[in-house]
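On clarity, I found the account of how folds are encoded harder to follow than it need be. Since the whole study asks how a given chain folds, the encoding of that fold should be made plain. For the editor and my fellow referees, an illustration may be useful. An entry of this sort, consisting of the sequence and the corresponding C-alpha cells, reads as follows:

:::
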Amino acid sequence: MLHWIPLLLALWVGQVTSSGPRSAFVERLEPRDFSSTAEYFLSTGSSALGGDLREGPAMMEDLRRGQEGLMIKLNDVTRSIKEDELKLNNIFYKLGRHDTDLEGVDSVLDRLSTSSKRIEAKLNKHAFNVDFLRRRVEEMKEGIEAEQRVEVQIAAAKSLINRLEDRLTDALARLGTVENTTQNLQKRSAPEYGPTFALHSRPPTLTVYPDRHTGECNVDWEQVGDGCYWFGGEELTYTEAISYCIRHGGYLLTLAPPGSQLSLLLNRIRADVVYWTSGTDAFYKGNWEFLMTATPVMPLHWALEVNSTAPHNNHCAGLTRNGLIKRKCSHRLPYICHII
C-alpha cells in the first residue's frame, strides 16, 4: 500500500508546480534528510522561518498531520481501487460466462441448422410423395370416369340387345302364328277324299338346328350325364326363358328320349320346383313339340296327372320330377338351358 505514496506525492507536487509558483508549504514538503535534527532546524530556521528556531516543533506537527491526511486519502484510494478491482473481476467473470454462452449458442445454432436441413430434405421428400399421390389419384379418377362411361355404354348395349331379343322373340312368335294359320288354311282347302297326309310334316320356321355338343362343359355350366345344363334360379316367362338361354350360350331345354340321360336329369332337379322347357303347342294346338329342335314330345315325357288336370289354355310345358306338366306361357318359373 505504501508504494503508492511517493507516486501520489510526485503527482501532487507536479500538479502544484505546473499550476503556479512554488509556495512555502510546497517547499516544506520537499524531501529532507532528517538524520541530523540540529541541521534540519538550522536550515529551516535560517531559510523558511527567518532564523527562529522556536517554530521547528510546529512544522513537525504540520508534517505529521499532513502525512496522516495523506494516509487517510491513500487508504480511501486503495479501498476504491480494490472495489474497482472486484467490479472488474465480476465484469471479467460475466464476460467469460457470456463467451461460454456464446459458444453454446453457436453450437445450438449449428445443431438447428443441421436439423433444419434434415427437415427441409424430409419436406421435399414428402412434397414429392404428395405430388406422386396426387397424380395417381387423378389417374384413378380418369380411370373411374372411363369405366363409368364404359359401363354406361355396356348398359345401353345390353338394353338394346334385350329390346332386339324381345322383338326377335315376338317376330318369331308372329311368324309361327302366320305359318300355323297357313297350315290350317291348307288343311281346310285339302280334298276330303283320298288318303289323309300329314300337313305338319316339317317343324315350324322358328325351329333351330344347333350343332351337337361334344367336349367339356363351359364355365358355370353343370354336367349331368352326357349333357351340359344351366339351372336358372330366377323366375321368368316362357319367352324370357328362351332369350336368357340364348344369352347364356345355350337353348331352352329339350328332353332326351326316355332312358338313363332323362333319369339323371330328373334326379338332379328339385322335387318341389317346376322348370320351363321348350315344349309347346302354341303353333298347332295339341301338337306338342320342343321348340328349339322340333322334336316331338313323347307320351312317356308327360306326368301321369297331366291329361286330367291341365286347363285348355296352357300351351307351354314345365318339367317336374314326375315329368312334363302344362302351364300358361305367361307364368313365371325357373328354367333349364342346355347345350345340344
Q: What stands out?
A: The first helix runs from residue 4 to 19. Residues 120 and 126 are 10 Å apart (CA to CA).
